Amino acid sequence: MAYLDHNASSPLRDSARQAMDAALGAWGNASSVHAAGRAARARIETARDQVAQLAGAPAGAVVFTSGASEANALALRGAVLGAAEAEDRITRLFVSAIEHESVRANAAALAETVPGLKLNIIPVTSAGVVDLAALRLALMQGKGRTLVSVMAANNETGVVQDIAAIARLVRTEAGEDALLHVDAVQAVGRIPMSFAGADADYMSLSAHKLGGPQGAGALILKDGVAFVPLIAGGGQEMRRRAGTENVAAIAGFGAAAGEIVESATEVMRVRNLRNRFETELRRLSPNVVIIGESATRLPNTSNFAIPDLPAETALIALDLDGVQLSSGSACSSGKVSPSHVLLAMGVDEMLARCGLRVSFGWNSREEDVDAAIAALRALIARRSALRAA
Ligand code: PLP
C-alpha cells in the first residue's frame, strides 16, 4: 500500500501515539487542583511549549482547538466580533481566492451577517501566488479597519505565499490597526515558518497534517489583539476557548511538533521523494502539467494533470492498485466540480478536472514513489489499449 496523501492527513507518528496512550491512562481534569488534575495540566503545558516552539510563538499565545477549521473560524469571527465597538470596528475583510473552505465559508457568513462588513476576494496569479499588486490596490482603495486572511501554503498545489511581503503591505497600506490572519496548516513543519517572523496577528495550525491526531489544532494569538471566544463557558485556555481540554489529542499534537523540531533531515528526504516522483512522471507522460511549478512550492506536494486522464477515474483505478492519493482537497474529493484553487489560477476547466495531488510525509518511502509511477503507467497503458481497440 502506498499512502501519498499527507496533506489530507498524515499517519500518526509513534511519538504522538505514545504520548496519547500515556495521556489516556491519566484521566484527571486539567482544571482540577488535585494531583490527577495537575498531571493532566502538565501534559497540556508541555504540549503548548512544543507547539509554540515549532510555530516560533510564545507559549502563552497558543490556544488549543479541535483543529484548524475551528482555529480559522475563531480567528475570523473572533477578530470581527471582538472588534465590535464603533471606534475599532472591522469593515473590510480580504481573503485570497485559494483559501481553504473553512476560511471562505466563515468570511462569507460574516459578510452576510455583520452590518457594514465588506468582503473582498484577492486574486492569485497563474502560478497560484497571491497577486500583490491587486492586494495593494484593494488595500489602498477605501477606508475602514481591515482584516486580511491569507494561507501560508496551499493544500492542493503546495504553492507558498510570501507572507512577509503580504504582512508589509498590510502594515503599510491598511494602517496600524489592520489585522493579519495566516492559515499556516500546510506550511508549519515543512518550510521555515514562524509566528513572530510572519508578523501575523492570528495563525492557525492543525495536528493531523503533522503526524499528530485528527481533532486537535491551535490558534496562535498576538498579545492584546481583537478577539472574542467562539465557545463561552469555563475559563479554559485563559478564557479563550471554553470546554474541558482533550488532553490526549493535545499531548499527541505536542509530541508530533516536538519530533519535527528535533528532526534535521525529514524535510530534505521528503523533498527528494517528491522530486524523484516528478522526474519519473515526466518520463512517463511528457505532456503532464505540473501545477504551480513556476512558484515556490512545499517540498512534499505535487499537483499534476495528465490531459485526458480524469482525476475521478485515476483515483479509483490507483486505489484498486493500492496507491492512495487525492484529487485536491480532501473536502472536495468526491465532488464533480473542479477545484476552486485551480480555477482561480486560470487552469482550463477540462485540465482542472484531471488535477491529481500526491503529498509525501514523515513515513514516505522510495517504494511509494515506485508504486505510484507503476500504477500510473499501467493505467495509462490500459486506457491507450482501450482507445486503440
Ligand atoms: N486549512 C488548510 C490549509 C487545510 O489544508 C485544512 C485541512 O484540510 C484545514 C485548514 C482544516 O484543518 P482541520 O482538518 O484540522 O479542521
Notes on the protein architecture:
The protein has 389 residues and is α/β, with parallel strands linked by helices. It is built from 14 helices and twelve strands. It has helices at residues 14-24, 35-55, 68-82, 101-113, 132-140, 163-173, 195-198, 236-239, 247-262, 266-284, 311-320, 340-344, 349-352, 366-388; strands spanning 2-3, 62-65, 90-96, 118-122, 145-151, 179-183, 202-206, 217-221, 289-290, 301-305, 323-324, 355-359. The strands form three sheets. A seven-stranded mixed sheet has the order 2-8-7-6-5-3-4, sandwiched between helices. A three-stranded antiparallel sheet has the order 9-10-12. Strands 1-11 form a two-stranded parallel sheet. It starts with a strand and ends with a helix. Mean pLDDT is 95; it is low at 329-333. Residues 67-69, 72, 100, 102, 151, 155, 183, 185-186, 206, 217, 329-330 line the site of pyridoxal-5'-phosphate.
End-to-end C-alpha gap:
31 Å
The best one-word shape is globular
User: How would you sum up the major sheet?
Assistant: 7 strands, mixed
Q: What is the chain-wise order of helices and strands?
A: EHHEHEHEHEHEHEEHHHEEHEHHEH
Q: How much is the average pLDDT?
A: 95
Sheet/helix structural class: alpha/beta
Percent helix range: 40-55%
Q: Compounds present? A: pyridoxal-5'-phosphate
Strand order of the largest sheet: 2-8-7-6-5-3-4
Helical run tally = 14
Strand tally: 12
Strand content is: 5-15%
Question: Regions with pLDDT < 50 over 5+ consecutive residues?
Answer: 329-333
